[in-house]
């Protein structure tokens, strides 16, 4: 039975039912919630729930749609080479679990950038928070944009609803189920959304295996025979964008920066009862993330195998492969699973971003901790909710900006630019943890602006400068190193402020 002809009304019913379920979970979990519940759930989150929710946030809509598509396409992350990055993740998560999280718990932080204030001073503190906000806002808005575009085509456009209205509705729904409970609610909704996303992947794998008459025992051999099974790439050297060492080191650095130095991801960890449970959460999360990414890559191989079986031409963009087959060439239940999985993957990342950005503004810039006694719970709740609305509005505006400049190369470059802003965070935290030197705090912002600009220029001309070498994700290491070197030049020995 094909899903061709699944009506927009059916899609609307599916999506509406899904959001009613999320809102019901939010209603249950947000009753009698306070600001402490919104920010860190008063350290009462179950560690295994946090692990499952983080899994969905790490996968995101880009992984759900893009990674399966690149398996059969030439270029970066072809075949199973993405597993090299995933193995690097394990090293990164070990570093976070053993070094960063114990420090965050010891300092009793709500915002992890409070460490920079204790270690260096106010400017460093605000700079770290600002770079996180810029990175998260652009990166998450881009991911949300990809998902909203698909939903708009499938759901809203057939009813004549303009794209800006689709965006407003999409962001409003996040606000509705997070505005009251915050991280307390997200721990539960993200767990639910992770299950929905993984269910979509597993069901699609099963459906294609059935269509191709492949058993589970013969699946590895079928993928190998189709030419998609290669995992490790050594022969191309450093010039190869799939080189093992480049991918492995990139995976470790990406994890340390985009999880360990990211308020969204660490806020969930800090909501656990103690450091022991947070570390158990990180261990479970690491193991399940490897399994989940392996499933996504298996799905990608099967999608390409099924495309060739149907003798269909490859879509213009590899991102279109999964939507094409799920909505037009697989059973109806796969179309339904794909829609729910798409929504879950997009919202699993976006809801945490809104909460994390709200936390960053309230704690880092409005001084909620410092002014708690003076302002009181009622006033701070009012300020926090207004801030949450403001972040939602800005988030929607950024997505609409992507629509206005909807030229693939421009948007992709803008998304990559967001990654550059994590480099200063890597440099700041590394300098604080690896040295005992005192910074001239007022100069920190200039170093953190200069490093990404220089890194961008190096990456742009790397093939000319380094005899064909492409840096890829390793530009993050270059960015962090440049920040570290710059900080060294504005530092002196001794007199460390607020040494951790």
State the gist of this model.
This is Sodium:solute symporter. The chain is mostly helical. It contains 20 helices and two strands.
CATH-scheme architecture: Up-down Bundle
CATH superfamily: Sodium/glucose cotransporter
Total helices: the number is: 20
DSSP summary, beta strand count: 2
Q: N-to-C SSE series?
A: HHHHHHHHHHHHHHHHHEHHHE
Descriptive account of the structure:
- This protein is an all-alpha fold and 500 residues long.
- It has one domain (8-419): Sodium/glucose cotransporter (Up-down Bundle), CATH 1.20.1730.
- It contains 20 helices and 2 strands.
- It has helices at 8-29, 35-40, 47-70, 82-106, 114-119, 122-156, 163-178, 183-212, 219-225, 244-260, 263-270, 275-309, 321-328, 332-365, 372-404, 408-420, 422-434, 444-460, 462-465, 475-489; strands at residues 438-439, 491-492.
- A two-stranded antiparallel ribbon has the order 1-2.
- Helix 3 packs across helix 8.
- It is globular.
- The model has no long low-confidence stretch (mean pLDDT 84).
